[in-house]
Write the structure tokens for this entry.
Amino acid sequence: MGIKNLKKFLERNLPSDSKAIQEIRLTDLSGQVLAIDSSIYIYKFTCGIRNSAKDLYNDQGESVTHIHAIVNNVGSLIQKSILPINIFDGKPTDQKVNVSNARSTIKNTSASELEIVQRKIKSILRKLNIKPKTLQDIKNILELFEKYKALAKYYTKLLKKTTTIETRQITECKEVLKVMGIPFIQSPTESDPQCAQLVKDGYAFATMTEDMDLLTYGSTRVVTNVSKSKNQCNIFNLEIILEELKITMDQFIDICILLGCDYTCTIPEIGYAKIYNIIKKYKTIENYIENDPNILSGKIVVPDDFDYIKARHEFNYPIVETTGPFVWKIPDYEKLHRLLVDKYGFTEDKYLYIENLLSSKFYSKHTGQKEFKKKEIFISMESDED
């Protein structure tokens, strides 16, 4: 989930001429190292594929959408002279177990609803194939078409809720990355704090994710809303955010906890429009709870399970791996060909395109290999499902 309404909070409270959030070209990050929240982009790509068609399969009938997702993502970044470090989710912390269980329940419920919606859509499509004979038939078809559009929209929503990245798929993605020579990390918990740690340790320039809680974990730069085909993204600068809001990092974390995070519940009656003034006035959550007239009078009730202290601890002292330095190695092209073409069903042209990317002047400089003579391959890896 990240932090609820954090982007809205920032847009509301930062100055109109703020430099804290900027839309830039993705190629402006050329030469930089990005820590990639990999699972979220595999998930995003998979949802995009399933929304427009079915999963991608190899000759054995096995789903290989996840392999196309990881190769597409890292390949497109290398094409723009960006070095990726891929981070994968581990087990959620004890504080997040209840959230994870709740999400599993939602997935199971959504899967049942998805089957019902699929049957309804098929029924409507059959009726839409009947040629109208009267004006009433035309009206009926128009009504059915409106129902179809509503169901299709709901189907997409359910599809996102039911999409799951399995352990086996992550293992296969890691194998491909290893053969490509691209570094990756298995985070001991969720990938967010591990991504942030790479930036804090100076191993990465920024994190690339769709979750705003990377800022709360202390990533000084966060790249979001990435469109490789349009060559654009947004970049958030934490230091400028703190400076322009005139708050400390501890106060920013308290703001994020009040907005809503996965580690605790929130206090009812205080939305993102009120929280900035609360922290500016009271400085900390403790002072707010102990001194606010609305809380003291009982007008606002703080839930018993509002455990902001543990939430603070999770953001300040997350469990992460000590890593680095990172090396981009010379790919094993023979093994990569066997994996991508023979096992995962990539076309020969697409494989050669990937090989060209990995032997490019930019990537070769970091791996120490000699540049190959390029072959002309007319394939683009860029799409908005990346």
